[in-house]
Amino acid sequence: MNFNNLDKTLAFDDLRKLGRVSLRNNLTARRISTYSAVAGADLTYNYAAMPVNNEIIDKLQELCDEQELVEKYIELLSGEMMNPGEKRLVLHHLTRGNCTGKKVIADGEDKEEFYKGELEKIKDFSEKVRSGKIKGSTGKKIDTVCQIGIGGSDLGPRALYLALKGWAAGEKVKQLRAEFISNVDPDDAAGVLRAIDPEKTLFILVSKSGTTLETLTNQMLVTKSLRGVDPAKHLVAVTSKTSPLASSKDVLTSFFIDDYIGGRYSSTSAVGAVILSLAFGFETFASLLEGAHEADNNALNGDIRKNAAMMDAAIGVYLRNVLGCRETAILPYSQALCRFPAHLQQLDMESNGKHVSRNGEKVDYETGPVVFGESGTNGQHSFYQLLHQGTDMIPMQFIGFRNSQYGFDTQVEGSTSQKKLNANLAAQIVAFALGRDNENPNKQFDGERCSSLLYADRLTPKTLGALLSHYENKVMFQGFLWNLNSFDQEGVQLGKVLAKKVLAGCEGDDVLKAYADILI
Amino acid sequence: MNFNNLDKTLAFDDLRKLGRVSLRNNLTARRISTYSAVAGADLTYNYAAMPVNNEIIDKLQELCDEQELVEKYIELLSGEMMNPGEKRLVLHHLTRGNCTGKKVIADGEDKEEFYKGELEKIKDFSEKVRSGKIKGSTGKKIDTVCQIGIGGSDLGPRALYLALKGWAAGEKVKQLRAEFISNVDPDDAAGVLRAIDPEKTLFILVSKSGTTLETLTNQMLVTKSLRGVDPAKHLVAVTSKTSPLASSKDVLTSFFIDDYIGGRYSSTSAVGAVILSLAFGFETFASLLEGAHEADNNALNGDIRKNAAMMDAAIGVYLRNVLGCRETAILPYSQALCRFPAHLQQLDMESNGKHVSRNGEKVDYETGPVVFGESGTNGQHSFYQLLHQGTDMIPMQFIGFRNSQYGFDTQVEGSTSQKKLNANLAAQIVAFALGRDNENPNKQFDGERCSSLLYADRLTPKTLGALLSHYENKVMFQGFLWNLNSFDQEGVQLGKVLAKKVLAGCEGDDVLKAYADILI
Fold first, then answer.
1. Closest Cα to residue A8, out of A288, A365, A517, A351?
2. Could you give the CA distance from residue A428 to residue A421 in angstroms, rounded to a whole number?
3. pLDDT tens string B17-63
4. Using the 8-state DSSP alphabet, how is residue B176 labeled?
5. Residues 6+ apart with CB under 8 A from A318
6. Which residues of chain A lie closer than 8 angstroms to B345, CB-CB?
7. CA–CA separation, B442 vs B191, rounded Å?
8. Does B499 touch chain A (CB under 8 A)?
9. Do A384 and B503 touch (CB under 8 A)?
10. Could you confirm whether A355 is annotated as catalytic?
């Protein structure tokens, strides 16, 4: 396996020499029907409005080959130590199936069996809670589940929960309400606790180490507020086998995760499984895993034109390192995905927001972009002004679905809301790409603002699984292209150290103390 | 009045020649105690961790003088036509008080009296609903209010509502629950309608023209769902006097707005007043106005060191046009402000994301940055990795409060959650600015990552008003510095035109049709 920096590859040098592609000159109906790659499940990635052509794509294929993207992915799937900084395997794919058929043994156990075993425990537990076999300590049925966790224990599961609420309502799947407490700001817990009935609520404490400050503090706040119920009967843990929470008498039961799945990749582990199985039933979660597994398998395809995650990753690197774009806007035309951009923000920026290669040397090129976004059409009435007429070009990724989740709609002026929604999506892609000339510069649209489109028939659990996996694999492939370790996060450490110093009285650090004096 | 481009000023030329300021060499406790400007109410802006020094600040003062920031602000306050593209006055400041004492006459009326008159109507109406004098059509008390609006009719009011919920709970102020329907995606309305009792809900339809597609479509969806109640008794309008909604029999009553307040600046007009007065009482909203008015008055100060909005604006331009920064991260350490960055995203990016000067010519420099953000400490566990160790420098703006809203807290390991929250805030500013050297490049923090801090004692309605105004005035001043019209939004028009074309069958446009075929 070669671990070379991007700027040491032959293909990258060539890419920089190729001519630029004008969308105004090239975007045609034919291109829209052919510039398309399967992502998995029924999810498709269309890159017709990206500034690439066959010559550039061929070169991107060479780059992916040279950087051994599929080979590295197979190594990762096979249990090689692909997080060298933390000396860990990277096993989140294994939570949704085995793509290689190989056994992965670590910590003296078969990891596939371990993840499956936890899923079985979660299936059993969630069914008992949903059917009312397991009740609260005062004998009431549980109708609310509340996740206490931060970062990956919060953003992914929250985004997925919101993404499936409407689908479950449309399908008449029984739902438990889910709430989330994440911030160490005590107002976060206070707000959630005010809105729930503790007798009918089950709390899920998520902390791999069992020592995350925010999470443990929020556990204390919750416990303090639980008057009249037995906290131990209303709390389960998702933690590692070796954490103090694993065998604590303070929890009803524990579900296990391990060191080989980072927080931002943990939605398909017990971190997401417990709350989503409780909220929507285990079958729903299993269907999400199935969609993710399909997309994981698709990402093994060495042909960039048949591998959406690879194409998306390679085009992203082209935009970043050849065209100099610094941001990516994620624009789902689906209210259900309203918090999905926040999850992707963590996934992408925490994975590839790095200045050091996996070999431990400073890189000489730009890496992960700033990721932001809101659901459309809301964004159109907000920040799209800058996307259309601002002085920088911001690449966009649209997400759309032919059908709504609830199936509740009405005709106004001859069209349904769903049709209006997607008419806007189509219109925006074209407006950004082609623009429109006007002799009044204030009404001039230069066009050449590129975007891609991920689309499917409807946002179901399976499609959502594929969507989640698409982005995880895209980020992984970009990490390989940039030669980064996408699975550690050393950049969050210094802040933690200094926060402890402030809590200890600043230890003679004048600058820290000056800020603490203002704020505390 | 001079309307010159930034690059035509003498001060800008000089600024580019001045040396760079190293935070590692300059950030001291003394600097933290002096690099501070009043914003209004008890809100303070601290810029000690920004890469400026007295020499640069003096030059920024010259730049603000040369671009006549205060003079232009006074013109605007006095009712001059400061939105020349749409030939409109810009009067949002007048909704919260008269800063100049001058009468502003337009459309044949005294505008201050007009806004005050609407406020009186809103006071009266909201008191009647809250006391139960006005009930739903089936005789039940209203306990939920639901705003139907998009863009500025949604983002600002929603952010302010969420910002005040915890304060109201802490103060035991009676609350009506507020919900928002914005997206044309029918799943948005379906989700909200599922969660409310129509007999106890009052809907507020917000559309200046009375013709906003998303909003009218959502009105239809809502009306369709209101079985068993008289829709006209459950719907009020916020609209212009000339709109079809103004005298509609479909609404219980109407509150008026005019053309002189753009959507993104409308939170202190009836657009925010109706829902916030219903949710928290008119006195709460009046207090928010008071805070905003204080900050508006403060922004009149010609001394940049005493005018937080001007300092913030000028430093932002320095970062953008001298140091080449393209983004601003807004990081409130307050869960109550969780959607405030989304409001600022619209406010800033829609106002200044432009490539044409107010004189109608293409500018030769970069304008408004990408604005994004999430609440801390959540962001620390998400995208801060990139902020600390990514390859671009992203300026940050932190927001903090000494005290929580609810007052619900507990000691864990010797400190409250509120103290932990602010210890983290202080730690992050210092970690970003000073970094820390390590012989392992993966653990190296270069520092020199700049941030500013807006802080106050507690997030009250008055402080929130000042915070809102601070950003509005900052954006306005930046528009003056860049010589933009910050009050139009021509960039959103083309997408609207093309969406209509899709709904009409694409009118022979092959490219549009190819996307429509995929999506519809």
1. A365
2. 11
3. 999 999 999 999 999 999 999 999 999 999 999 999 999 999 999 99
4. -
5. A15, A52, A56, A60
6. 372, 374, 382-383
7. 45
8. yes
9. no
10. no
Q: What is the C-alpha to C-alpha distance for residues B148 and B237, in angstroms, rounded to an integer?
A: 9
Question: Does the complex come out with an ipTM higher than 0.85?
Answer: yes
Separation between Cα atoms, residue A186 and residue B172, nearest integer Å: 17
Mean pLDDT for chain B overall: 97
Residues near A354 by beta carbon (within 8 Å), at least 6 away in sequence: A367, A368, A484, A485, A491, B385, B386, B389, B390, B391
Question: Residues A316-328: pLDDT tens digits?
Answer: 999 999 999 999 9
**Secondary structure class of B377 (helix, strand, coil):** coil
pLDDT, tens digit, 9 for 90 and up, residues B151-160: 999 999 999 9
DSSP-derived secondary structure for B200-234: GEEEEEE-SSS--HHHHHHHHHHHHH-TTS-GGGS
Entry field: residues in chain A: 520
The residue type found at B300 is L
Query: What is the rounded average pLDDT for all residues in chain A?
Result: 97
Q: Give the mean model confidence (pLDDT) for residues A165-174.
A: 98
Q: Report helix, strand or coil for A451.
A: strand
B450 band by pLDDT with thresholds 50, 70 and 90: very high
Q: Is the pLDDT of residue A152 over 90?
A: yes
The torsion of the CA quartet A492, A493, A498, A502, rounded to 10 degrees, works out to 80
Output the six-digit token pair for B418.
């509120």
**CB contact burial B83-96 (16+ within 10 A = b; e otherwise):** bbbeebbbbbbbbb
Residue A173 at interface with chain B, using a CB cutoff of 8 Å? no
CB contact under 8 A, B374 and A345: yes
Q: What is the mean pLDDT of residues B312-333?
A: 98
Interval A188-196 mean pLDDT: 96
- Residues of A within 8 A of B193 (CB-CB) are 408
Cis peptide leading into residue A367 (ω within 30°): no
The answer, for A335 touching chain B at a CB cutoff of 8 Å, is yes
Q: At what angle do helices A282-298 and A270-280 cross, to 10 degrees?
A: 130
The single residue listed with the structure tokens 């007065």 is B277
Q: What is the dihedral of CA B78, B82, B83, B84, to 10 degrees?
A: 120
Interface test with B, best of A43, A206, A515 (most B CBs within 10 A): A515
How is residue A83 annotated by DSSP? Answer: B
User: Rounded CA gap, A349 and A338, in Å?
Assistant: 18
The answer to whether residues B207 and B153 touch, using CB atoms and an 8 Å cutoff, is: yes
Task: Indicate the pLDDT class of residue B243, thresholds 50, 70 and 90.
Answer: very high
Phi, psi angles (nearest 5°) of residue A404: -80, 175
Number of CB atoms found within 10 A of residue B463's CB: 26
In tens, the pLDDT along A359-417 reads: 999 999 999 999 999 999 999 999 999 999 999 999 999 999 999 999 999 999 999 99
CB B381 within 8 A of CB A152: yes
What CA–CA distance (Å, rounded) separates A260 from A240?
11
What's the token pair of residue B41? Answer: 């109410």
Q: Quick count: other Cβ atoms within 10 Å of Cβ A118?
A: 21
Mean pLDDT of all residues in B156-165: 98
Give, as one character, the DSSP assignment of residue B241: T
Task: Tell me the β-bridge partners of B56.
Answer: none
Cβ-nearest to A345 among B382, B424, B502: B382
* Contacts (Cβ under 8 Å, ≥6 apart) of A504: none
* A135 classed as catalytic: no
* Cα gap A197→A11, rounded to integer Å: 59
A201 Ramachandran zone, left/alpha/beta (phi>0; psi -120 to 50) = beta
Chain A residues inside the 8 Å CB shell of B387: 353, 491
For the full predicted model, state whether its pTM sits above 0.95. Answer: yes
| pLDDT, tens digit, 9 for 90 and up, residues B300-321 | 999 999 999 999 999 999 999 9
